[in-house]
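Consider the following input, taken from an annotated entry for Assimilatory nitrate reductase catalytic subunit (Yoonia maritima).
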Amino acid sequence: MTCVKTTCPYCGVGCGVLAQPDGTIKGDPDHPANFGRLCSKGSALGETIDLDGRLLAPQILGREAGWNDALDLVATKFSAAIRYYGPDSVAFYVSGQLLTEDYYVANKLMKGYIGSANIDTNSRLCMASSVAGHKRAFGTDTVPGTYEDLEEADLIVLVGSNLAWCHPVLYQRIAAAKAARPEMRVVNIDPRITATSDLADLHLQIKGDGDVALFNGLLSHLANSGKLNSDYINAHVNGFDLALESATADDPSASGLTPDEIVEFYAMWAGTEKTVTIYSQGVNQSMSGTDKVNAIINCHLATGRIGKPGMGPFSVTGQPNAMGGREVGGLANMLANHLDIENADHRDAVQAAWNSPTICTKPGLKAVDLFKACADGTIKALWIISTNPAVSLPDADGVAEAISNVPFTVVTDIMARTDTGDLADVLLPATGWGEKNGTVTNSERRISRQRAFLPTPGAARPDWKIICDVAERMGFDGFGYETAGDIFAEYAATTALSQQFGKDLNLAALTDADYDSLAPTQWPVGKQTRFFADGAFYHPDGKARMIAVTAPELSTGKFRLNTGRNRDQWHTMTRTGKSQRLGAHLAEPYVEIHPDDADAIGVDTAELITLYGPKGKGIFRALISEKVAPGNLFAPLHWTRQLSAAGVVNSTVETGVDPISGQPATKSAQVDASKCDVA
Ligand code: SF4
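Applying the prediction step yields:
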């Protein structure tokens, strides 16, 4: 039976997979992300490829329709909204599940042909704060590290990252390296004790959002203990004095750690040259997310621990193609090829490369604001592609209401019933993993192919094809691609613009490569793969910037709710929910609560708790555990209204966003909790 080399569709590790049409799945021993390893989710992929519940034909108002009717209607409604209300009256909300080719044409249509930047993505919930932090520090959104650095480091510091559950193969790689080199140490900084803590020599149970205070304190400690790299700072860094002044004003005990813990951590960090600081959602999903990122990067810049093997800050992305989305400008505040909407030269260059009739002139609405604009009537036509915001966004009930309020909503999905799809006027069936072709980019900037190995189900079509068909019906040239490979070739050619403006996202060398046989390739292509090795950064003066950041006031509510992921589920369980094996791990929605808090509200093990947010509530099974600190709760986000009549956790979550990145603070929702007497 044919065995196809493809890439796992779940997390940003981007593991290579060998897949057969009968559902046999193995890790690809040749893929440099995983060298044959797979986690529980990846190894169960074969159990998730049946057609149960699949959307196999377009639907208009709940009735099956032909593609021509559905596409004509979508094109007509979007064109009418643009004609009567202007380009900013329409919006796309897309996903880190999309392949780069899908992302590219959606972005091209909205920004270059419709002329609005109202295209945002669920990656806004994943890593927008890292993007903003990178741009502030380096002058561009560049992740400097590689997975090999994690194995070469003598000290791994994990911040807000339950790698064991959320990026399991990276965790396995670090665990294997630590077993081979017992002198390697791991510090886990997390308000919650997690499976990742098992690997840690030191677990620091920080207060939620105590990260800036802790890393500002580290910067002060490095200065006071003679551990700065002054030569590096003088040659390659701006902003040191102000950053240190700000850091010195902060008290590291605001992190909630004891003086002994702080001293031990600072001594380890200061005394270990080869240090990698890994961070993910616990850092990003915060109202101070961008400042947290820069507080971490400041410490690496101040010691010159960046651009060298086994050291550097390392942001790991949650979704399989969050990185690819960043590359093609799939965020409302970015242009393709890491160029800037606010820069007229960048806009002109992208418009010329696309040969498009227009180009957006200002950033569009970021995810939370996009749905507020749906609620207040600004958005007249909305297209949601491959994501389930009525469950996954904060204030989930409000988001569902906002979608209902839009006069015309299209949802493209692989499934016939989702909480979001149920609100659509038009449903369009997409091909899913194993049925479509394209590329994804993982957390270390490695581009890998997803390849089809299954037949196309029903009338489903690839996302790029659906988007291009609508674009052509709206009267736009420039979307006549025959294959995903055609799109990739155009995209790769346009990345030459990146170099034209002094950046390094240049895939032009891949333009002529054989797309079908494209091996996993790290960018920049055809150059050094280690960024910043020469101390050159992307700000106009060639230097990096340390950013002065200040620890935020910590919120004080009754309970602080941290939402996240389980080991064996992915997002709203569209795929992983099909595997009985995966469902056996944690079978129902729950909330983790400290024994003292459980006592205080009179809840015993496995009884039910009602969580109340400012706008919604939900009922969850009590998991009483000392792994969460008193006053803190943890609940997974996976269960939808269709899977749980007791409500979805994001109905209870109402938070602000990081003022720079627009990323919602979904680790720190203020909620109330009480015992629920419903059996
Ligand atoms: Fe898939 Fe991530 Fe698991 Fe790798 S670690 S198999 S990419 S879910």
